[in-house]
Amino acid sequence: MKSGFVTLVGRPNVGKSSLINSFLGRKAVIVTEKPQTTRNTIRCIYNDSESQIIFVDTPGIHEPLHRLGEFMVRSAIQALKHVDLILFVVDASRGVGDPEDRICNILNQAKNRVFLVVNKIDIADDYEKIPELIKQKLEIEKVFFTSVVKGIGISELLNAVKEALPEGPQYFPTDMVTDRPLSFQISEIIREKILLLTREEVPHCVAVIVDEIAERSNGVLYVAATVYVERDSQKGILIGKNGSMIKQIGTLARLEIEQLVGKKVYLDLHVKVKKDWRNKDFIILNEIGMKAEIE
Ligand SMILES: Nc1nc2c(ncn2[C@@H]2O[C@H](COP(=O)(O)OP(=O)(O)OP(=O)(O)O)[C@@H](O)[C@H]2O)c(=O)[nH]1
Ligand SMILES: [Mg+2]
């Protein structure tokens, strides 16, 4: 069979996670309209009768303002090593800028095979010149124009990726969707709902940690999670008037977690203030789902 590892890289918000969900035909990773949604590298496993492709989702490459940001960019760069192919994703509506220049430099050092993916063509004009601009700085093997929203170019890209991969083993069981534990997937669903419902600085100041997952005798899955923010004012926004905001977040998250686990869920959400957590190690480690390992 054809198999291998394929890393998606690009500035924040270009549609890396959306492309992966589209390849897999299901939601494996969270997507929002806010930049810096993805904070970790996440391996997502695509299977069909003749291939297994491990798509590696990465945080968007940006200029970091705190240790969490540094961690995110470092882990994206790390994910370029020892993979079979890179998909360099560019937003057709934003074109080529400093972040793309920086990514070209990084990719030149990594010396991987690269396909350029110009995504969001449904909301852009004038994107045909993007490949030429990139090719001045980086060797590109193939170029694809895609729209996740309109489903344009996705199957062509997937087929080309498959063709580019070597003959190899099945690396993961076929029923595995990502390499992250359930606690991480649940924390991401909760964070996604917070990102969808809050604005300005709040989304970036939020971390979610699942403290407990327990099977109850009545068949309900009990999930306790803590939402960390950096300031009291952010806690107030998250809780909302008479608890209305946290209730809305909890309901949306619970419905999706129930779909994921296939049973009823009782979701117990708490909000705590942890000053400057984005510069503190322990939460950052929790963010990458390593809580169990460091305890
Ligand atoms: N119009 C349009 N929007 C898209 C397309 N692909 C993704 N989006 C939207 O772009 C936004 C960002 O998508 P993501 O998949 O989260 O982008 P990302 O590159 O993973 O972003 P980070 O995780 O922040 O690095 C979301 O609102 C998506 O719905 C597309 O082809 N067309
Ligand atoms: Mg993402």
From TrEMBL:
Localization annotation: Cytoplasm; Cell membrane
Annotated Era-type G domain residues: 2-167
Membrane topology annotation: Peripheral membrane protein
UniProt GO MF annotations: GTP binding; GTPase activity; ribosomal small subunit binding; small ribosomal subunit rRNA binding
Alphabetical UniProt keywords: Cell inner membrane, Cell membrane, Cytoplasm, GTP-binding, Membrane, Nucleotide-binding, Ribosome biogenesis, RNA-binding, rRNA-binding
Positions of region (G5): 146-148
Entries under CDD domains matching the protein: Era (cd04163), KH-II_Era (cd22534)
SUPFAM superfamilies named in the record: P-loop containing nucleoside triphosphate hydrolases, Prokaryotic type KH domain (KH-domain type II)
GO cellular component, as recorded: cytosol; plasma membrane
Region G3, residue ranges: 57-60
Entry keyword Nucleotide-binding: yes
InterPro entries: G_ERA_dom (IPR030388), GTP-bd (IPR006073), GTPase_Era-like (IPR005662), KH_dom-like_a/b (IPR015946), KH_dom_type_2 (IPR004044), KH_sf_prok-type (IPR009019), P-loop_NTPase (IPR027417), Small_GTP-bd (IPR005225)
Domain KH type-2: 198-275
Chain segments carrying region G2: 36-40
Record region (G4): 119-122
One GO term (biological process): ribosomal small subunit assembly
Binding site for GTP: 10-17, 57-61, 119-122
Keyword Membrane: yes
Family label: Belongs to the TRAFAC class TrmE-Era-EngA-EngB-Septin-like GTPase superfamily. Era GTPase family.
Alphabetical list of NCBIfam families matching this protein: era (TIGR00436), PRK00089.1 (NF000908), small_GTP (TIGR00231)
Protein function: An essential GTPase that binds both GDP and GTP, with rapid nucleotide exchange. Plays a role in 16S rRNA processing and 30S ribosomal subunit biogenesis and possibly also in cell cycle regulation and energy metabolism.
Protein's name in the database: GTPase Era
UniProt organism field: Pseudothermotoga thermarum DSM 5069
